[in-house]
Amino acid sequence: MEQLWLTIKFLLLGLFQGLTEPIPISSSGHLLIAQYFLDVEIEGSTSTFALLVNSASLLAVLIIYREDIQRLVINGLKFFKEKTPETRRDFMFVVYLVVATIPAGIIGVLFQDTIDDYLSTVVTVGVTLIVTGLALWLIRNMRGQRKDGNMTMKDALIIGGAQAVALIPGISRSGATIVAAMARGINQETALRFSFLLFIPISLGGAVLSITDIVNDDNLSTMALPYIMAFVGSLVASYFSLKWFMNIMAKGQLKYFAIYCFVVGPLVVLAWFLLN
Question: Is 162 left (phi over 0), alpha (psi -120 to 50) or beta?
């Protein structure tokens, strides 16, 4: 019975993480909130759990953007032989993705442990959710005209910097990168695509860094089924959540996420002070 409850709990945690990963409200921040206020603990290795649910979200992104990825790979390689406007556009898009990955990669390697030790708190999440809400509110009505072929190296660096800031719990990665892109005059479709294609290298990088922890996970055999269910839950929820978010972006309704952050952020801070 205990194993059944554990499996169900991990399925629910996977669904929760998958639901919040694509949308701009910070999945890591919400997981911290759930663990603190609902007294939810992650049995086994938190590194293994994080890798599995993030990998599931990555797989959902790969499925949804598979045609874009295929085109970028083919045209990116073709650029070395055929320098057409189309191949140049896609080659440079890949270059910008690589460049935008660097800031978060460097900050993550150098300071991730410090961030985890000092900023992974409920109060931090409450405050940063408010910051996320403010950023979303400021760009809620922006309708940029710049598309893939109009991006620049400066855009990539700014978006990459925003992704690095999102290493702080409560700052949404998708929210930060989309806000940065739209603030630069990039249209919603390109901003969304760039944000989630940018999730691919940062997620793969995190997986590589977590391999050692997983190999040393003493609970891997006993936690196999709960881990699998967390992966499945995250995959399904990430897929439908991202599809839903794409529809929200197309309708220009980011303000609802801003309002959500304005409500939840202060409530989290207030609740923490009342309980302490």
Answer: alpha
Dist CA 122 CA 120 (whole Å): 7
Per-residue pLDDT at 47 exceeds 70: yes
Helix axes 224-251, 188-215, angle to 10 degrees: 170
Q: Which two tokens stand for residue 116?
A: 């985890």
State the Cα–Cα distance between residues 269 and 276, nearest whole angstrom: 11
CA distance 231 to 218: 19
Spans of all domains in the chain: 2-37+46-275
Residue 215 has pLDDT above 80, yes or no: no
Q: 3-state DSSP call for residue 186? A: strand
Tell me the two tokens of residue 31: 């997981």
User: In angstroms, rounded to a whole number, what is the distance separating the alpha carbons of residues 5 and 49?
Assistant: 17
Least confident of 76-85, 216-225, 250-259: 216-225
Comparing CA positions, the residue from 137, 173, 124 lying closest to residue 17 is: 173
Read off the DSSP letter of residue 24: T
Q: Is the pTM of this model over 0.70?
A: yes
What is the three-state SS of 101-151? Answer: HHHHHHHHHHHHHHHHHHCCCHHHHHHHHHHHHHHHHHCCCCCCCECHHHC
Rg (CA), the chain: 19
Q: Which of 11-15, 113-117, 120-124, 240-244 has the lowest mean pLDDT?
A: 113-117
Coil, helix or strand at residue 260 = helix
Q: Which amino acid is at 136?
A: L
Residues 186, 183: Cα–Cα separation, whole Å: 7
